[in-house]
Design a protein that fits this description.
Elements lengths: L2 H15 L15 H15 L6 H9 L4 H4 L4 H6 L1 H18 L7 H24 L6 H12 L6 H18 L1
Helix pairs in contact: 2-3, 2-7, 7-8, 7-9
């Protein structure tokens, strides 16, 4: 890769890191892709049964990089419009391939990354509710429901999910 391409890739990722998450909701503590990515990477390491592969770590690092071009599409929009969700996934995949952010993962690795991403969103949402931001209660419910779609999440993820759900239940009751 020539120096100019490397510089452009780094600039692209820096821009992606500054994208605001939950931009359609009021948040008390702003969440950015960079912070979210750091937390997802920590969860990927925790959830991996062995040391995660370099491709899994790179996938975690770049999993939301496309948001600097298309934004953070709210989950409810994707859920309510499956055709739109499919279209955005194709766009994201094209951007990832064009900029060298697409990695071939095994099925187990894809699952680890997906669960880490969902757990991190749940964790952030619960923290917002704990701060008194009850607008994110709906996000907590959505993330909890998403996790239920993955019965094979593994012991560590199950423990984290139980910890977060118990923590949340104590705070809202």
């Amino acid at each position: 890769m020539v120096e100019r391409e490397i510089i452009e890739k780094v600039e692209f990722t820096r821009k992606a890191g500054s994208v605001k998450r939950f931009h359609t909701m009021t948040t008390l503590v702003e969440d950015r892709v960079a912070i979210h990515t750091y937390n997802v990477m920590n969860l990927v390491i925790a959830l991996s049964p062995n040391d995660p592969s370099v491709d899994l770590l790179k996938s975690a690092l770049y999993h939301d990089v496309t948001e600097c071009l298309i934004g953070d599409i709210p989950t409810n929009i994707k859920q309510d419009n499956p055709d739109l969700d499919i279209a955005f996934k194709k766009i994201e995949e094209g951007i990832e391939k064009e900029h060298g952010f697409h990695f071939n993962l095994m099925a187990e690795e894809k699952l680890v990354l997906k669960i880490a991403d969902i757990l991190e969103g749940l964790w952030y949402s619960i923290e917002e509710v704990e701060r008194g931001n009850f607008e994110l209660k709906t996000a907590v419910i959505v993330y909890r429901e998403k996790l239920l779609k993955f019965p094979e999440i593994g012991e560590v993820a199950l423990s984290i999910r139980q910890h977060l759900v118990q923590r949340y239940e104590v705070r809202i009751n």
